[in-house]
Here is the input.
Amino acid sequence: MSKRAVCLFFTLVLIIPTYGQDNKELQESFLEAEYFLMNEDYTDALTYYLQLYEKLPDNANLAYCIGVCYLHIPSKKNLSVDFLENAIKNMSAKHKEGSINQIAAPYDALFELGKAYRVNFRFDKAKETFTKYLATLLPDDHENIDFVKHEIEVCDTAKDLISKPVSYSEENMGELFNDEKDNFNPLISADGKSFAYMVSLKFYDAVMFSKLVNGKWTAPINITPELKSDGDFYISCLSADGKLLFLSKDDNINSDIYVSSFDGGSWSKTVKLNKNINTKYWESHGFISEDGNQLVFASDRPGGFGGLDLYISHKTNGDWGPAINIGPEINTQFNEDRPFLINNGKTLFFASQGHENIGGYDLFRSDLQSNGLWSKPKNLGYPINTPDDDIFFMPVGDGKSGYYSRFNETGGSGKVDIYKITFK
Here is the structure.
C-alpha cells in the first residue's frame, strides 16, 4: 500500500465515525422538533428546527417546517414567507417524514406558502400559489381540490370585504384577565355575573373563573384541578346562571363534550354528555340557550354536508334528545365550528371556512326566520374577521357586542389578549 493510500485510509477511519455521530445527534434533534410539531407546540419545535437549519441551510424540508411553525405563532406569521419560499425551491412527491436526511420539502409547502401569503394580505401571490398547488393534486382527490378552489376564490372575496370595513369599538379587558401569556376563549354567563376563560401556562392550558361581586370581578382562579383535567379540556359555554360549564376534551384523536356544575364554592368533576351528543366521531363546543333547553354543537359524524357541521339537540325528560343537523343554510362542504346560540335560540354566531369568506375561519351571524329556516349567514366583516383564522366570538345580549381574543401588534398585555367589542 502506498503512503498516500495509507494516509487516505486513516483519514476515512477518523472521519466516518465522527460523521455517523454527528448525523445521529442531528436526527435526535430533528425527532424532538417533530414531536413538538405533532403536539402543536410550535414555539418549542421552532427552536430545534432553527438550530438544525443553521447547520443544514440547504435542507428545504427544514425550511418548510420552520415556515409552518412561524405560520402558527401569532406574532411571527410574517416570517413564514421567506422560509416557505425557500422550501418550494426543492420539493418531492416522494417526501418521507421522520428523517433529517429528507432534504426535499413536500408539495404541501405550496399550500402552506399560499396560506402565508394570504394571512399577510398578499392575495394575488396567494391565488397564484394555490393554483400551482392545485396542479399537484390527483384528479380523484375531490375533497382537497374543492377546498383549494375555494381558497382561490377567497383571495378575491377578501379584497372586496376588506375594502368595506365595519365600524366597532374595542376594549381590552385589562390586567385582571390579560397577562403576558395567551389568554383566550372568553365566556360570560347571560346574567353577566360569571366569567371564564383560558390561559396558556408552561405545560398546559388552564381554565380560569371569576365572579362579579359588588360590581367588581374577583381575581380569577385556576379551576383546572377541580375539573380533574390534565389540561386537555377547552371551555365553550357558561349557562345563563353561571352554574354549568360546558367543555370539550381534545386528545388529538377524538373530542367529546362534557359538563361541570358549580355549587357556589367549587366545580365538580366533568361528566360526559349522553350518546345522542357524543359518538365515536368528533364532537366539540357545546353551547346551550338561555333557557337551557337547546344545545348546539359541532360534529363530523356521517350524514352531514362535509367536514364539521353544526347540530342542535333539545332537552327531553331532563336529558339531551337526538341531534338534528342544523341545515344547509348554515352548514357547507367545509368546516363549521364554535357555535353560540343566543336571543332565546333565535340568533346563531359561528365560525366557518365556507360562505363569503376573508380567509381561514371567519365569524358569521344568522337569525332564525318565521319559516323556521336560518337566514343567509352574514360575515361579521373586516377587521373583526381577517385573512387568518377567526374562530371564537362570545356574543352578549342581542349580539351587538361580545368578547373575543386577539394578538395585537400595537398594544395589549401579552401574546393574545381578551377584548370586548361593540358594533356601531
